[in-house]
Every structure is written in C-alpha cells, then in structure tokens.
Amino acid sequence: MSALPARRKIVVVGGGMVAHRFVESLVTRLDDAGADAPDVHVTVLAEEPRAPYDRVQLTSYFDGRDPAALSLGDAGLWDRPDVTLRRSERVVEVDRGARTVRTATGAGRPGRTYPYDDLVLATGSSAFVPPVEGKDLPGCFVYRTLDDVAALRQYVETLHARPVRGRPARGAVIGGGLLGLEAAGALRALGVETHVVEFAPRLMPLQVDEGGGEALRRIVEGLGVTVHTSTATKRLLPARRGSRVGAVTRMDFAEDAGGLDVDVVVFAAGVRPRDELARACGLDVGARGGVVVDSSCRTADPQVWAIGEVACIQGRTLGLVAPGYAMAEVATDRILGGAGSFPGADLSTKLKLLGVDVASFGDAMGTTDGALSVVLADPVCGVYAKLVLSDDARTLLGGILVGDASAYASLRPMLGRELHGDPMSWLVPDSGAGHQAERGTVALPDDASVCSCNNVSARAVRDAVRHDRCTDLAAVKACTRAGTSCGSCLPLVKALVTTELEAAGVEVSKALCEHFDLSRAQLFDVVRVTGITSFSELVERHGRGRGCDICKPVVASVLASVHHGHVLEGERAALQDTNDHVLANIQKDGTYSVVPRIPGGEVTPDGLIAIGAVAKEFGLYTKITGGQRIDLFGARIEQLPAVWSRLVDAGFESGHAYGKSLRTVKSCVGSTWCRYGVQDAVGLAVALELRYRGLRSPHKLKLGVSGCARECAEARGKDVGIIATENGWNLYVGGNGGFTPRHARLLAEDLDTATLVRTIDRFLMYYVRTADRLQRTAPWLDDVEGGLEHVRAVVLEDSLGIAADLDAAMDAHVDGYVDEWRATLEDPEKLRRFAAFVNAPGTADPDLAYVPERGQRRPATPAEREAGPGDPVHDPHGNTAVTPVRHDGSAPQPLPGRRAHEPDDAVLIAGPRLEVVSR
Amino acid sequence: MTAAATTWTPVCRYVDLEPERGVAALVDGAQVALFRLHDGTLAAVDHRDPFSGANVLARGLVGTRGDAATVASPMYKQVFDLRTGVCLDDPSVAVRVHAVRVDDAGTVLVAVAG
Ligand SMILES: Cc1cc2nc3c(=O)[nH]c(=O)nc-3n(C[C@H](O)[C@H](O)[C@H](O)COP(=O)(O)OP(=O)(O)OC[C@H]3O[C@@H](n4cnc5c(N)ncnc54)[C@H](O)[C@@H]3O)c2cc1C
Ligand code: SF4
Q: Has the ipTM of the complex gone over 0.85?
C-alpha cells in the first residue's frame, strides 16, 4: 500500500467567470471520480467583494435587477469543504520559488500568504483608458465590474436629479465596439442622450465588415443614439462653475472636428490583460500583453497556469468568455493528469446591443483564400446579412448578421460544413417562429456544437432527452449546461428538445389544469373562432369535468374579453371568484374592501368628502393605495350594495381593484402645475384610465404617466409607462412592481397622443390575447417568441397583419364599457348575491370582531378574540390595552374550537369609540 | 341508531339557488355553506374555512377534481370535497358535511351535523 499523497493545494488568482468555470469543472471531475478522487483543495482569491458573477450580462443590471440575478451556477459551490472563496483579497505578489502568493492588506485585515502546489492565474482584463487629457475627471467611468456599473448608474441618477438647464443629461461612450455599444445601451436605458465616439470608420470594426457596420449605424441611430465614426477624442474638460464644478462637461474631438457638451463619459476603448503579477515574477508576456501559455494553458513554470482573458494563447489574448471556459476545462484536465489541449478559439459572437441583434461567426471578414460571400441587405428593415462560403460556394466559413440574427443559432453549428440548398434561404428573415432553427435541427449533425459557451454538442442535448429523460428545456439546461451562459443558442436548443420530445411521443404540455389541455392563449383563440359564449359549452367541447378555481376565472376573463357584457351576466357569474362575483376584494376576515375609481388620481374636494362620508357611515377603515386612490376596508358582503349606492350617487364608479383588469393609471401633476412638466400628464392619465377601465386581462394591469423625464409617477414600474418629452411621449412596456420588480423597456419614442393611444391599444390587446394565465407583461415579453422586438413589430409595423383586428377589439371594449356597480345596483337579480345568509340576508356574520387602532378599527387577532373584552391584551405595537368588539359593539365569539368565554358587556377601554352602523 | 329526530330547518327555495354557486345559511346558530351542483343535486358543508378561520366557503368556486364535486376556499384556495368534507390539498383537515334535502314544495331543508 502506498502512502496517501498530501492534499494538493490549488490557488486561483481572480474570481471572475473563468475562475468560476475552473472551480466548477474541477469539483465536477472530483465528484465523478468518487472514492478515487485525488485529495485536492482549491482556494479562490478574488479582488471583487462578491462571488463570481455573470459579467456578460452586466448590462442587464440596469434593468433594475439586483446583483443576485447575475449569479453564476449553483451558489452551493462556494460552501463545499474542498473549496474556499476569499472575497476582497487582491494578490499583490507571487513567489514562484517559495510557491506562495501574498495578498494586499485589506480593510482592517493584514495581508496573508497562501502556499500553492498549482497556481492558476485568472485575473481577466481591465478596461483600457486611452491617455486623454481629463480622463480622470469626475463623471468619467469604465464599464467592467458591477461596482463600475453601480457607480455609473448612481452618477446618472444625480444628473437626472439636477439636470443641466435646458436639456436632458448627455453622455458619450468612447469606443464603438462590442463593449461601447453595450455601454451605450446602458446609458440610453438610464435615460441619457447618448453619443458613441469611434476612432475607426465603422461600428464594431473587429466583428463586422463595412456593410454590416453601416447597417448597424443606421439601426443604432434609429434608436436615438448619435454615432461619430472616424472621430478621435482629444481632451475632456471640467466645468468651471455651477453645481458640478470640476466634473466633466465638454469633450473636444481631435483635428478641430468640433466636440460635444457632455455630462458623463464612459471609456469602452478595449481591454488590457491584467498580467502585472506574471510580469513581476518573471513569466513571459505576449507582445500585446497576456501571460504566455502553451495549448495546455501552462506557463513556462510547470506549476503556474493562466486561463481566460489574461492568457496569451496561440499568440494572442481572447476577449470572449467561451474560449476562456474552454481554457478552464483544459487546465482542470491537465491538473488532474489528463492530456486535454486548447482546441482553438471560436470567436463567434451573438449579441443584443441596444436591442439590436448582431452576430459574427467564423471567418466573418472573408479572409480565407478564394472565399465567396453572399450578402442580403435590406436597409428598409434594417437588416444586413452576409455568409462567407468556400470557393465552391458550398461550405460555410463564416458570416455576419445585423438586425435579425435569428439564423445564427442554426448557422453557427454548420461552420465548416456543407450548407444544403440555396445559401440565401438560410438568411431570409422568417417570422414563422423558429423556422430556421427547426430546419437546422433536422440537418444538425450529432457532433455539431450547439452551445459554444459551454461546448455542448447536439448529441448531448439529444441524449439529455433520450437517455436522461429530461422533458423540458429547463431540465435540459440543468443537465447539459447548454444555454446557461450567453443564451444565444436557446432557440436552437429548444427546437432540438421539442423535436426529440415529439419523436419520443412526449406531449409538450401547456395544459391550463386538469379540465383543459389548452393554454390560455389557445382557449382565447377557440372562443374567438368558435364564438362559444358559455363555460359549459367550452368545457364540454374542449375540456372535461366541471372546472375549478383555475380554469373558471380564466374562461370568464376570456369570455369577457371576446364578448364583453356584464361580468355577472347569467352563467358567467358562477365562473368568477368571490372578488369578481361581488365586485370587491376579500380580506382576511371575510369582509371586503371597496375601491372607487379615481382616474389619474385626480379627485375633487367634494369627491373626497363623499368617500369620507361613506367610510364614516359604514365604519370602514381607510387607507390611500399605491395607485393613487382610496381603499375602504371592512365592508360586509351585505353592506356592499348600500356602500356602492352611496358612492354611485356621489358620481363614483367601480375601480376594478378586484379584477384581473386595468387597475389605475398613476400620474404626476405634469405641466398643469409642475414647473418642470412638459406635457399634461394628468390629462393623459385620466383619458387612458377612462379608455381602458374594465378591460379584462390575464393579470392586473397598471399604467403610469410622468410629465417629464424626472419620472415622479414611477411609470417605468408599470406594465405601460409613459414619460413626456418635449416632442410628445415615450412609451415603455413590461414594467412590474411586486415580487419580481422590473423596469419597463422602451417601445417607442416621441409619439403624438393619438399614435400613443393606438400603440397602447394594440400592445394591451396583443397581450390580452396571447399571454398565459396570470402572466404579467414582463414575463410575457420574455416569453413571446422574438421578445420586445417582435411585439414592437406587431404593434408599430403590423408585422402580423392583425393591427386592424386589435384596434377593432379595443374599440369594441371602449364602446361596450358599462360601470359594473351601477349595472349591479339596477338589477334585483344580481343584488341577491349580496345576502349575508340566504335565510337572513341582513344579518351580519356574528363571528366578526374588531379592535380600535390609531383611530380606526382592524380585525381582532385570534389572541385578542380569545381574551375577549373582559381581559384586555397588549397591543403588540405599543402599550395600549385594547379590547375587541363586534361590529355592533358587543363581545366577539371566540373562534369555534377555541375555549368558550362569556364576557360581560364589551367596553372599549382604549381608542375612540367606533361608530359602526350595522345594516 | 336512535330515532332521535333530525331537525330539518327550511332555509330557502330550490329555485333561489344558482347552479354551481353557493349561499350561506344560518341554521341553529351554525353557519352552513349550501351549494347547488351542476347535476342539480345539493351539498352542504361548514361555511367556516378551517385554514383562515373566516366564514367564507359558500363564496368559493364550485368545480370538480377527478370525479369529486369540490369547492375551493376563496381565501387561500384549498379545495374541499363537497361529499366528504375532506380537504383534498391536505387530507388531515376536513369540514363537517350537513344533511340537505328538498321537499315536495321545493323548499330546501338543512340538518346540521351533530
Ligand atoms: C459589459 C460586458 C459585456 C460582455 N459581453 C460579452 C459577450 O456578450 N460575450 C462574450 O463572450 N464576452 C463578453 N464579455 C467579456 C467577458 O465578460 C469576459 O471574456 C470574461 O468575463 C472573462 O473572464 P475572466 O474570468 O477571464 O475575467 P474576469 O471576468 O474579468 O475576471 C477576472 C477577475 O479577477 C480579479 N482580479 C484581477 N486581478 C486580481 C488580483 N491580483 N487578485 C485578485 N483578483 C484579481 C478581477 O477583479 C476580476 O474579478 C463582456 C464583458 C463586459 C465587461
Ligand atoms: S415627472 Fe411630473 S411631477 Fe416630476 S418633475 Fe416631471 S412633470 Fe414634475
């Protein structure tokens, strides 16, 4: 028996994406080896204060997402006993003789020394800042880390808070490459007027050719970003006075080519490998930097490795994540005794920059001898596509796609292979969703690489379905890691999975519930096409059983959308859950809350008095809602008609707070009063609220209107957000508060009011027709094939030819609107459902009990109920002794099943006496 | 079984009940949820939802799960079998089932379970 070898220590310098992949692949290999696994410990020394995150998705941090959304893989990785992650530890020295690294002294912590057996340098790159005068002024940023992005965002927010007189905040990005356009997208998303300054004669000079660059420029400029090519920055100048004295305010171009007044500058002029540690310890670096390694990722020192952006492999550094991942796998394999070697870089990229698809793959510039190219350019649609083919026009060598890169997923795996059929047919934009992807899957050889980030072959995806029994995309992603990095291959992976599942006879289920095999969108189509008007007929012909609390409200909503009419009409009444049934919101004790509509949040003093009088008369707890209206709580079912007849008499109507329908259109006071306002926000909000009131939808809908870019109405947190500009309105869609907050994304700019309303009409109707049950607009936009671009094409360009139909549907909604509460009050049949008890309609639920608090009443807690009025209990919020009372002032019954208690007459011993009228 | 008379309390007319919807009734001080099902038969269970403690079951949506006729609590959506009272989402919880019948005059009578 041989002696146990000592535990092998691997130290990784840098905690970026490639370091993460290295550790992940190492522990996977160790776990796979089971009992035979060598005894290894890996320590990651990371300068950044957080675990490795998805730098590629950095820009999505601007969508209001939290840093956690950028996390990579399974967070449990860092909790393993054989893995140590040290955050905020920067390595300052490598001693190759002693085989140790030393870290910097940190906040309140001395530097430390870590011994290693194997040292892996994964220090990535830093942003390159050209030596321009003024480059360090406040207001100048780079774009590399989460902290960079957070600082940039914060700065821009201060710009918005104190705008320079007369114009919105303006920013310039220096560099028009991949990173520059990312940064420009981010600035634009932050509401900054954005300029891109590029030294080369075209955008993305490294990835696309002249034609592609020109197409890109047209699209980018169409998005409101100004592009300056063949322009060099000479210097940046600070403000001499004003609130931002000392901060950058002016950019001068070289050769007297003018300049720009700017408030913020982002450098995105390239990256430099962080090879300083290697230089200092005498390792070779490449001519343009980078730690020189061989194809096994080893430096000249056999114990030292370099991977990712810091490595100079095959003579150059590589600024993409996929080759970095490949290096991580190679280094793992070698350290564990394998013979893996770097396969060569695939520099294919597909990016969404400013919402524009750009893909470049293989020999994009056509530098191969005798290469031919096929170009399809459609300046009108903003599409440019080029395929580079071998001299016999058969084998695909590379390509560039700008504007529509949907063909990328199926083309990239065909690199180096023969393209069957007319090459042009691979390029024709095809709205038949996933058409190319499907064609691709049939043709796709098993060994074709589908996901280049994670090097997953078509075979691996097929096997995940065939052998590992994955039955959906999520499972295949988890099992193969395909599509878990940049995500550009997901359409292809999805198509492969669907094809495999169908071949295996597995149905891909979209069933709503056990009663319907159809999805909400399919039910919508069925109802629209067949004209079915009742649940019974629908469930008999297209479902089974008698429905449930899932499908019934969905069918009710679909029927209401397609056929209009009162929601409590006939059989439809039985489909509505209690909120829709009694047109109020159920609360924890079984009473309801009532919300009259206050369009745009605008209410007269008399209106307020009327609401106050109703609340007082019925003893309702009142609270202002986030949607700028007033919620009245604690109305018993039998009180609702009386409450509403008062409100209707005072001129109010249903606020639909109970329905999956339009809630409110929140607004700021806009140009009517506000000294900054540029449009009449309240007027628009009132008009929109009156237009869409009562519109039934898959989930609740909220709108917001702000009178200027300061966005006081927080419109971008709404499903539809409108922000006034000097020239009209900017329209944002897909915002969301709640559990998963999302900022709305820009759909269109500077619309006049009529166009704005039509665009919202179509957006809402398209959503109502195609979204899933309880799917809000944000996830719907994520799910819809083609995403926001597709929706934009549908509503603005009528790409599906359904605009007239959507318009007609919205017009029918507007014409068909009736106030549900007024209609209910006028119909004795409908009023019968508001009986407390069928045999005692006016008798209040005897179990209700309340406690006064801050001058109003609230439901008694179980403990307060049990204590009864005889034994005061202590209010958890203070020292006040409180006593529960029933609506009529008498003592509450303990809840059934609890200790019986027969108190004397209830006396309120704290708080004002409640005036509660029982009806 | 003793002949101890079951007390039947008239609560409403059959025609007052909407198909697949419930009503609440006060019977001997007990709150009962009474339902008219799709096939015309009636079912009665406690009105009190054991999960929330609120008297709301009569306001739930009526439907089916498999072959069982059900009501879903409007509060937290647990589904109860209307014939047995058992909560299908948590069979350790049940509501009481009450006897219900219609007499020749079309009056609905309920007898509260003991
Ligand atoms: C905005 C943006 C968008 C991008 N988009 C794409 C894309 O679409 N597709 C694509 O393929 N690539 C993209 N990239 C590039 C991609 O992010 C990088 O290729 C990848 O992150 C490289 O990984 P890495 O681990 O080598 O380096 P990094 O991720 O940079 O990680 C290096 C880490 O090492 C740390 N470090 C450095 N020195 C030390 C030290 N001495 N001690 C301790 N820690 C140290 C750094 O702080 C850093 O955290 C993008 C990059 C950015 C910034
Ligand atoms: S958003 Fe509205 S309230 Fe805020 S500053 Fe602009 S106009 Fe005024």
A: yes
